[in-house]
Amino acid sequence: MAHDERAATARRAAAAGAAVAAELFRDDLAVERKDGKTDLVTRADREAEAAVLDAIAESFPEEPVVAEETASGAAVPEEGPAWIVDPIDGTNNFVRGIPVWATAVAAVVDGEAVGAAVVLPALDDTYVADGEGARLNGEPLGVSPRTDPDTQSVAPTFWWGLDRRAEYGAAATEIVERFGDLVRFRSAQATLAMVAAGSLDATFTNRETNAWDTVAGAFLVRQAGGRVTDLDGDRWRHDSRGLVASSGHNHDAAVAAARAVDDHRSE
After folding, report:
1. Within this chain, do residues 38 and 75 fall inside the same structural domain, yes or no?
2. Which candidate, 86, 126, 150, 201, has a CA 20 to 30 Å from the CA of 63?
3. What is the pLDDT of residue 1?
4. Phi, psi of 217 (to 5 degrees)
5. Residue 76 and residue 78: Cα distance in Å, rounded?
6. What share of the chain is helix, strand, coil (3-state, %, to 5)?
7. For residue range 41-95, what is the model confidence (pLDDT) as tens digits?
8. d(CA 68, CA 65)
9. How far apart are CA 203 and CA 205, in angstroms?
10. Domain check: are 201 and 106 in the same one?
11. Rounded Cα distance, 226 and 76, in Å
């Protein structure tokens, strides 16, 4: 079946999940911890994910899904189609009433994205990417044209745990010494979407990443004309360690920053 139908399904599914989550945003939800003090989950995560899975099943009922809350142990298959789902990326923001969180869905074939949607309902923003490019709220988008590092804004993404704060400190130092400013949004998919839209110039981590936190946003960046690599500067895949996404301007400096952070790696 054509990839454009997969991309359209990704958008519909992300919108369905985002609508459910938005109804519960700033509601009095019970919060559970999955693994550590900052790894949270709520009823909204589970109900939003169910809505996403239902929407995918309407068009592609037999295809495998890698989803954060219900299939987090599953791996992205190297052959054939699959779906990658994060119902609420940025749950810590969600539970504290901060509007930067996203529902993300990616369609992949043979391990490579062919369509994706990242919906930030509290901001009324819908990012989509397909074979034709990337769009924000229906309008074409592209990465930042800034070339002067002193004018660029860069975000560290993903969270270094309590036993890895030296890496977080190193990331902050590398950014403020190499670029104009540091910002952090606590949602990887939202951050990647902002790189795609040119609101940010780059983002990086040296950490291992989960497919549901990265694949949709990385595809957005690429389809918007940006670059996404691993710590060696090679093309990023869902199973790479580390991620560097940028407009492409001064990408090597962002890679160097990520590698310097990795020198502080404690596990």
Report:
1. yes
2. 126
3. 47
4. -65, -40
5. 6
6. 40, 25, 35
7. 678 889 999 999 999 999 999 999 999 777 545 789 999 999 999 999 998 899 8
8. 10
9. 7
10. no
11. 23
Instruction: Identify whether 181 is part of a domain.
Output: yes
pTM over 0.85: yes
From residue 124, give the alpha-carbon distance in Å to each of 12, 18, 130, 194, 203.
15, 10, 20, 14, 23
Among candidate residues 116, 126, 113, the one with its CA nearest the CA of residue 22: 126
- Torsion angle of alpha carbons 61, 67, 73, 78, nearest 10°? 60
Q: Check which CATH number belongs to the domain holding 9 and give it.
A: 3.30.540.10
Burial string for 169-198 (b: 16+ CB within 10 Å, else e) reads ebbeebbeebbeeeebbbbbbbbbbbbbbb
Same domain, 189 and 255: yes
Do residue 213 and residue 87 come from a single domain?
no
Same domain for 189 and 230?
yes
| Residue 267: inside a domain | no
Cα(69)–Cα(229) distance, integer angstroms: 27
Nearest 5°: CA angle at 213, between 41 and 116? 120
**Count of domains in the chain?**
2
